[in-house]
Records
---
Amino acid sequence: MNSLVDNRKFKSINRRELLKLAPVVALGAFAIPKLQKPLLKIGLGFSDWASSKLFRSGHLAPTFADSELTPFSKFPINDYDVDDPQVDVDRWTLTVSGAVQKPGEYTLAQIQALPQVRQNTRHVCVEGWDVIGRFGGVRLSDFLKMIGADTTARFVTVECADDYYESLDMATAMHPQSLLCYEMYDEPLTRQHGAPLRLTLPTKIGYKQAKYLTDLKVTHVLEKVGYWEDQGYSYFYGL
Amino acid sequence: MSTRAIAVENVKTGEVTEAVYEHPFVVRLCHWVNVVSLFVLVGSGLQIFRAFPSFGAKIPQKDLLHWPKAFALGGWLGGALQWHLTFMWIYMATGLLYLGYQVFSGNYKQVLFMPRDVPGVWPMVRHYFFFGPKPPVKEAYNPLQKHAYTSVIGLGVLSVLTGLAVWKPVQFSWLVSMMGGFHLARLWHFLVMWAILAFVFGHLVMVILHGWNNFVSMLTGWKKDPEYLSK
């Protein structure tokens, strides 16, 4: 019944079958120091591309009841440099530039004149912890409309008083839960949480939600991505 | 079972042994790619865990354990995420290829634990752990092996689902709710990893105990003189 082969033929069959596994060895490229960085860059880039495809503009992040809020005193304060970059809140303005019809300086009062939104959403840190906070502010999309932003541009970038910087894809900037946030827990933003204005983005990881905003730009091209991204973190990191 | 068998004749001695093609190419390929992926995902996952080694609140932070950096991959959180977010695609692609192949080729029958395998489990446990008599070997995998392999494939699926919940808690908010919230999803992801590692440990022990001929079959596909063919 069974076909009969001699042991030499059997050895060559075995050798051929073993050689078929050669593609596995290609993974060894990840162990070569020179190739490792570019390969991981491709991997992260693919991940970010997939993330942008998984993002749905109409899909809202879960919101929570007041009873589920993390107490304000237990809302962590993460900064990369200083807790308080000494912003003169009274004389503060947001400098708007780029692909907008009305560039210039915007006061907090002008921003607060837009419809107010308050939402209880989850804040997830790349480190792994999460808290549920109450954030109040105006929709970034409303502000972009007010300044006459070209929403076909690809990015919105921000600069901060502590030299932090960030960038956002336009789809996320236009998401209804993306806020220019000026209060937390119904109180004006404290200095440590980014007074007078920060980003709140329930569809993004924490490091994208920059504090102490000073500049906002609408642009087609990115010169730099973000403080952490430029050190190797994911660009899109949508939740 | 439709496993391919041949008779091998030693030209010097004239002795004839049988050999069976036990592991198809796709299964072997997926197995070895997965060895690499699991190594990378576990190593980088533990480095990611080091950034917040807790499953409780951030304030006050109570660390669960201090995992040594020497047994982690990536060097820092950002580096570990690069490894994790790269190899998770390789891991998922391998899993899909494997499952697709097993289903469409019918080869899943070799490994899938079925109700008819239940009676055979206890005799195997008795043999392995309590010095019981060795039950007769009828097929490539005994009932306990099928149970282990079927379970670990289930764990693989769970590792992906819990991972997706942690990575995209907004887009996959339904997965997060199924797992009891973001906190728990992260904990499940961690526990599934340890369950897979427990399997790997047991698997390695059995591979060592069963010797070279058995090991080589996962490289070439062919197993010489398998027990279940001997008269």
---
Amino acid sequence: MSSTMSRRGFLGLAIAGVTVAGLSACGGEGGGAAGAKKGGAELSKKLALPTFTAAKIPTPDLPIDAGQDPAYLKYPTELVKSVATPPGDGKKVTSLTQTWDVAPPAPGQSAYLQELNKALGAEWDMNIVVGDGYPDKFNAIIASDDLPDLVWFPPNQGLQRVPELLAAKFHDLTSYLSGDAIKKYPNLANLGDVAWKSAVTDGKLYGVAVAYSKFGQVFLVNQDYWQPVGGTNFTSADDFFEKTKQLLDVKKNKYPLEPSYVNHVHMFSHWYGAPNTWKLEGGKLTHQYETQEYFAALELAVKCFQANLFWPDPALATIKDKVANGQIGAYVESFPGFLNDAKTQKYNLGAIVPFAATPSSKPVYNAGLGSVGFTAISNKVDKARIETLLGVLNFMAAPFGTEEYQLVNFGVEGTHFTKKDGDLTFTDKGRTEVPTTQQPISFVIGSPSALFLPGQPERTKLIHEFETKVAPMLQQRVTTGHFSDTFTQKSGELSTLASDSIVDFVTGRKPLSEWKSFVKKYMDKGGAAMKAEYEASIAKG
Amino acid sequence: MVASTAAARAEVLVDTRPQRRTIRDRLKRDWTLLALCVPGVLYFVVFFYVPLLGNVIAFKDYAPFLGINGSPWVGLENFATLLEEPEFWSAVSNTLQITALQLLLYFPAPIALALLLNSLVGHRVKRFIQSVVYLPHFLSWVVVVAMFQQVIGGAGTVSGFLNTHGITIGNLMSNPDTFKLLVTAQVIWKDCGWGTIIFLAAITAIDMSHYEAAAIDGADWKRRLWHVTLPGIRSVVLMMLILRLGDILSVGFEQMVLQRDAVGAGAAEVIDTYVYYHGIRDGDWGMSTAAGLMKGLIGAALIYAANKLAHRFGEQGIYR
Amino acid sequence: MERPTIAGRTLKFLVLTAITVAVLYPFGLALGTSLMGRAESIANGGAYVLFPSKPTFEAYAVILSGGAVTRSVLISIGITLAGTALSLVCTVFLGYALSRRGMLGGKPILLMVLATFLFTPGMIPSYLMVKELGMIDTYQALIVPVLVNAFNVVVVRAFFQNLPDELFEAAKMDGCSEWRMLWRIAIPLSKAVIAVVGLFYAVSYWNTFFNAILYLNDQSMHPIQVVLRQFIFRGNAAAGSDVAIVRDLPASSVQMAVLVIALVPILLVYPFLQKYFTKGVLTGAIKG
């Protein structure tokens, strides 16, 4: 009867459980949400990014010299106060955001929100869209011209004509944020270039970057599973294949690899040194699909599939239970997913550090986007109020180890959490109020990631060790901060084409001999246009 | 017999209705009926026809912030984008094959089940079975697919059992060749019981005296089924069939997306998933609206044709 | 009536048993899995189970704590009752009028209704209409925009049309108005189809999801399906989503507990409706 409704409803599940894994698999081909329909790309480069100034934070317990996230084994005793006075003007600050969690308590019943409002000197008021409904609601609200003060622009959710939309309905914040102007907002100045690049549109800054981990997808394992072959240190792709094969036990329903084929090809491509989506040489771009390295990774995945190493049924929602149970040995996660598993999973978690697939390979590790889009300020907001709103965002963006971060992420000591032996524990009140309210906040404004897992210093060390090992191999996407019209218009279609084809190749439904014709099709359908647009943009930069 | 006399009499009565009245007379006669239409018609105008005008964006390059008037015209470009892709046609072909299978295998299933339930003598058994068969309808597709995987999947109970006995069979859940049968089986399992409800209601509308008359004439159950029950629900069956034809180009979106990786896009791409992956996800409003319009027009044509055909066989169809 | 043959009865018995098992087994799985604890979920790799070794109401406790689910159940019951009643009235009225042969404008109106079965208005124009009518953040927004379903109108109309014409003609001779005929003849003889259509409406109101997230900004107004779905997101998601989510519940048992909770009202209501479509109503109706 109501096919539209059930479809929407379903998509939520698919995206939560299944599809997103596939989307992010494609390496998150993102270059930020922004893109230009009318040559905006040409303008993007003359802009001075907000000058990076490291915020004052408590000294981390582990080194940060290689670019690791600041890690704390115990909660810092001396917190920094990063914002002197409440930034708000006593009025409502409205925003449009989303959540994947259950609804937070109503503002009137949330001690957390009341405390936050007191500290902000404002009334933080969110219109929270449930899960996958965001693009629909976003577009409906845009069409009805009923914008809240702050609107989150997600990357990769099919939003079109973002540059024109921003110009028509939002404030240009360049003069407030660009270059040294950012110094007025020290916590925003602390977000870093990688994040800020994704907030550039048409050579202007229309929004505040929503900071997010700079590390990309991780190949995670249950270490116990790999014990019989001496762990997960491999010397080559062959070594990996042979050891993995030994661990296959069909009779006991044990399959070493999770059935996310595209994600596995991505992980394997690290070992062969394939580029992070694009390779830049002498001003010319090569797409990863055009490289020998990526093809080698695909071949390895095909070999694994033929050897029956993948769990036989794809689209599985209970992978973690199977990993915990020793039925699946390895799976692919986003970096925050890694942190989350480290916090919540009891199994012997580990991560495979990229290694050289062949003696001549140079292993790499692909960086993530460093942001989840940006938050723009509606031009219905009085110009005089822009600085107030930026001040509020500055407060919310405070890094780990500040009083503001503690309030935003943990609430009030005694009410929402208790401190004991350098660890934080949520109280019942904290558990119901804080995570459910903080998650939608985190899409409006984020802070640079830090490693702190209450009560689990050894897991913090595990993650830090992984970061230390992959830091030298970290490969940024060369197109970040550059824009391609074709990318915004076609990325969904192209990534479907790519993931469908890769799945077909891995599962043997298409012979590898057809790979070349797939690549040609990919380039013809938009890959080549993207390449030309990015090259032109890079040449200008 | 009774049925035929009743029908004959009905026809006579229809024919004796006064013809050639003036509009004013008819208005005077029908005003109660027209008043009864008002809430429904008002609803359709306000929440269907007015918003439906927005479908004009099928001919536009629509952007929500520009509004419908502000978005530029593009003629038939959106239709062209859709129709010139070979993948779209392969999705059409998959859709039609699946619908054909469903019409053949799924459509009769609830009718058969309803007849079977109706034939039960024991009242309590009847009630019990009736009140459980509709349950699977309320499982979401995610759960249905997971349950099928758990039983017949590559790591499911059946292959697990066979594996331990050294027999390997292919994975039934990831075989593109049998996929269309699999999805039909899933639909039958999920919705067959739910589908019986409307036919059971149709059976209750049969005049019991027909059964009594047939019993007196000494008709056995087969004859009663053939001469009383089936003719009694024929018009409802036909109506359901015609309505299904109007919806022929839509097949289980969720079901397909969930099983896409298992069998590949080649087997699981249907029109709705194609439009989703090639239009909706890239925010291409024009293209997805164009697809909806085309589907509607084809559905309208099919309903029109099927209805004509029904009239030819002396049936009411869904309109006359 | 004579009894069917032994072979026939055996066959029937076997077929019905098979069907009953095929539909009840998954519900056993759903119920069993909803009572499965985290440890057991891990021990069997997240598979659904019929009989959990240590049944626990953990999943239900988590979902029902905090009052959000209880509140949303009440909201959904209200929407379902009010919506179904309104929808039934409009549908029966329209279906009845269209079932009367020769009504002025009958065919154009019927075609207009049928067209709505084929096309769909866009999400944004519908949103703008709801907003224009001031229904954003009101419960009406979950009822009025889906008030009448063309399919149901067509079904109701078909059943009314199948009623013996003699009844109406006789009533007409007695000077009955159309209004009286609707209440005295059409509705009493069509309880079955009204029950069916009522069930269709009730189920669709109960399952309201997308309109709720589109039209209601205030999360405290959300109906049951939205709230339950959020628990599934919470238990299931994280995979590729942007923010780490606390995964404190076994995904499958939450999924199933959600299913069971959403199913309870339907299980409760069904027996009341069932009596309307188990036996014929037209016994000797013509004579009377």
---
Amino acid sequence: MNLESIPLQAFLTVSSILFCIGIWGLLNSRNAVRVLMSIELMLNAVNINLMAFSSYIDNNLIQGQVFTIFVITVAAAEAAVGLAILLSLYRNRVTVDMESFNLLKW
Amino acid sequence: MSIAVTTQIICFSVLSLVIILGALGVILLESIVYSAFLLGGVFMSVAGLYLLLNASFVAAAQVLVYVGAVNVLIIFAIMLVNKKEDLKPIDNIKSRRIISTSICLTLLSLLIRVDLSNIWRLADPQASIGEESTIRIGEHLFSDYLLPFEVASILLLMAMIGAIVLARRDVMNEDISTGLPVDQELIEKSNEPLLMKKN
């Protein structure tokens, strides 16, 4: 497909916006599940970046697509372990409020 | 795949709009269940962007792994920890919101400035392998990326074992500290958690 119609900058801008939304959610969510969702959003933004660069700049070797597959793998592992940690936190403290996990606070 | 230029632009605009609005919904909506389903929509739209970029294999992997596994896992987690609780209000919430929003906006403006001002050295579109990308990914995975590919399998095994160990319920009949029988339900209601007493 001829990709000249959509500029590379459009993909990069979308992924920047998605990444910043993810950071905002990470900083402001009270619910621990929503924090995990924000991390997934940020990982997706990074994946969009890698895919766009792979199609526009490295369109013959497409190493960016291989990297995206590895990022997807790591994200799946991260989600599984993160939700297991969340479950055991919930068993210990009977809440998912991020403000109550303050054992390491100064 | 050959799509007309106008169709491409329309597809890209609709997908980007769905991604950004969906992501805003994920972090802003009150109900966490709505957030989880919107997250699934965002993942599907990202897969659509990958299709637009001629990467059908990665789009399929995105749908299978993110929508099929990660999103289902998140919905299960919501089901397991879904308890209505009245959150304690934070006293300095306003200054926190202002600081975090300004940090995010600054980062966003920085990123967009870099995106737009940098001169990207685009490759020749004629050299693109287009629909052959799945074959090329297979070649990469079994030649120069063979070691990361194998390490990824070990990582997945470790994550699986770790998740089982962390989320497993202790099969003990009585509590060590109190000597009371442990209820075998998912949520331990009757026992006062030890760590809560600190607050």
---
Amino acid sequence: MKHIFKLLSVAGLALGLATGAQAQEKLKVGFVYVGPVGDFGYSYQHNQGRLAVDKALGDKVQTTFLENVPEPDSDRAIEQLVRTGHKLIFTTSFGYMEPTLKVAAKYPNVHFEHATGFKRAANVATYSARFHEGRYVQGVIAGKLTKSNIVGYVASFPIPEVVSGINAFMLGAQSVNPAIKVKIVWANTWFDPGKEADAAKALLAQGADIITQHTDSPAPLQQAEAAGKLAFGQASDMIRFAPKTTLTSIVDNWNDYYVARVKAQLDGKWTSIDTWGGFSANMVNMAPFTNMPEDVKKLAIDTEQAIKSGKLDPFKCPVYAQDGKEVPCNGKGALSDGQVLGMNFYVKGIDDSLPK
Amino acid sequence: MDISQSVIMTIMTAATPLLLAALGELIVERSGVLNLGLEGMMATAAACGFAMAIVSGSTTVGVLCAVLSAMALAGLFGFVTLSLGANQVASGLALTIFGLGLSGLIGAGFVGTSRPPLEPLFIEGLTDLPGFGKIIFGQDFFVYTSWILILAILIFLHLTRAGLTLRCIGENHHSAHAIGLPVLKTRFRAVLFGGACAGLAGAYLSLVYTPFWSPGMTAGRGWIALSLVVFAAWRAERVLLGALLFGGATVLQLHAQAASLGLPSQLLSAVPYLATLIALVFMSLGRKSGTVTPGSLGQPFVPER
Amino acid sequence: MRLELSPRQNVWPLFRLLSPIFAMAMAGLLASLVIMILGQSPQAAFDVYVLGPLDDSWAIQEIAIKMVPLVLIATGLSFCFRANLWNIGAEGQFTFGAIIGSILPLLTQGMGFGPWVMVIALLMGMLGGALFSLIPAYLRAHLNVSEILSSLMLVYVAQLLLDWLVRGPWRDPNGFNFPQTVNFDAGSLLPVLMDDGRLHAGVILAGIVVLVSMIVLSLTLFGFRVKVIGSAPKAAGFAGFSSKETIFAVFIISGSLSGLAGIIEVLGHIGQLKPSISTNAGFTAITVAFLGRLTPIGILFGAFIVALTTIGGENAQIMLKLPLDLTTCFQGLLLLCVLVSDSLTSYQIRFVSDKPSPTTPIEDA
């Protein structure tokens, strides 16, 4: 039996060498996605980033992806990429943090990049985007446009990224409309179009006239359109799903980052760093502002510019927590990155209780 | 539209795909066949229906293709389990795996495409009646179909000879065979009918509920539909009750959240499952012991010698 | 023309052994056709799908790791299914076992206790799974509530409970409020058996479970009772076998093995609790149990097929850029082929010409 395996492995090796010889100069870059590339949301945008790498560096790089990888299977998936010769591997979901670190410890000569995590190693870099900057701009738009003063928020899971998004949205809205209220529904899923649609309908029925979402499907937008209300898209530009309703979408843009990091790897300049970029790093974009009057559009563009240039921080101090107490200001004139990354409180004016 | 009316409309939308799929499965199981492939048939139908609606520009063509694609899968299941006598449970599960994969292959080219939803019925003077107008006269094709199906199934099972034949075969295929009833033919037709209903449910998901296609959009609804058949003790009118109960609990927990009740969202999300379970417990308490399951359910039919 | 089945009187044992191989050949033929249509070489695909995962120690270990929860759960389910009890909530018992089993490793985290934490955790995992399976068992035995619905509904409840725990009370205080517990102490985890891979002691436990259940099913009165109650409930009643007792017994076996699988996954390679600890093993195991004709050896084979094609599918995505959905399709087709060839070994199939009169089948009786 052992003999057979040995024979087979020799054959496999020969095969590997044969294909390896042609692609020897090409750097192999791997991507691990938590969802299907066809979700038109989170994983879809990461895949757009991969395609951008192909386009920019296709002559020197060969990219591969594994989609729909469940977290408990990710150790194996990542290691399989290493074992097939991939030298730079992007693991694009928070749940891949420990698996990425485990595999990285075993293969010090391979470089890893983990999205949205907080643990690094000599060969593991981390990266994420300041999505809350986009949420603040959405808040400003919603504050201006709402007539009922109620905004509906379809949320996924109470993790810091989602909570800080809700807070940034609220702070943006309050900056132009102090009376605004936000109603939050936790769908307890990232992706279930039917349930997201039901959540949006519940919010619309309870008086919301603008819907925003932190789940991945365009279903809430479509419901808002059917009800003749307004809404924001998520992760990619979703205007084609609701042309009369979409105000703008927050677009995750990994293209520049991925191209830059693969370039660094090619040039031998890759180092383990932590990147947390927003508008200014071009990691978060706003899709064109539509379905709104010119003055609101101008205000939105100005707000985006102010954040981009660093003049405005969505979490500029003082920030008041739900109970009215001021949140300690650990950063320079604003909450520190650490406070935002681990956010587990609501700001004043949100009368929901945070799931604990 | 006042809030209670809109809540009822939302509940019906959430209940309809469950109802359609469960009604089809009910007939299949009443004939003595257990097809666990609902999820796979629904997924394939959702993808096929959406793809063909986009290609042809016609919702009708989309719905037809959805139904036909699910029937094709059901036919495959029927061939394997009825003609070849393979294990029904495992074949149904394999069908689900196959259908989910197939839906991904079919739908891949249609990611990010959108089309307007099916228009609901509007009758001047009736649909705009206050209170119940929209609920009775403002639904779409699928909702009315599901209502008609319930009636048709009740009539078929209890008032027609064919229905009696089907029930006999489901209860005891050997004695049914002995008195000359066509066991396999009836079962094959029932399986195809189940496929057609699953096809309607799938089409509803991608053409009405949320008019776009995405992988995994069935999100476990096939399994819920399967357990609703059990909940209903294989009776059509109780499938309606179960679907409304489950859909209602789903929608109301979202409303409870929007109204800021302050309970953990996980607890509220568990409400539909717990409510269905508790309802079943109470319904069982009121019933004398004894089983209501079709006697031959899940067993392959091999003529005795 | 139509097909008619009749049971084969004497099945040649070799025939049964060859049946899965025949099935794989059949599935391979179908798959080759599709792959050729897609413009790839079927031979390369065979190398990647089937040989690739078998070509070295690491990959074989990965197959074994993937098989562990499937084998454990499916073995437990085979007891339920033999007794005609449709426990389809193994996924929930898996999750609840992982939760209960994790209590001690969580409490003792950072205290550096030895492997006895692991041993107790494994036992508590089994206990958790068993407790959770008592709900559908009780409802079925005493209130005649269908176990199909109750066990399935409880899956979602267990998952939401886990979700709440890791986002709330059990959240790692230093984890930036992300939904996960602390990493358990290395001493509380299952020992790793090889130095070139991740194979852990769970594989030994799974092996023991398979052996024990072979003995129980074939040699003990209990095993006999389970079979009789499933195939002939009335006869079992005459023989004085209590169906209530059996309901509880098989649910406890199935629940504790699912719970064991859950805690083994946590202590074997995840090392902490987080919202998703399962790859749907509880549902996949149902397929595995039936692929294996509800026998322990057959279950080993079924789990092997599922594990091999899963890993082969990842290979195909990497090496051939074949989409995951295609692999899923193949997996479904392969399972159907196995079932068909299995039934071809048990039944003889004859073509008979259709006769108009509905009473013709009588001639067979």
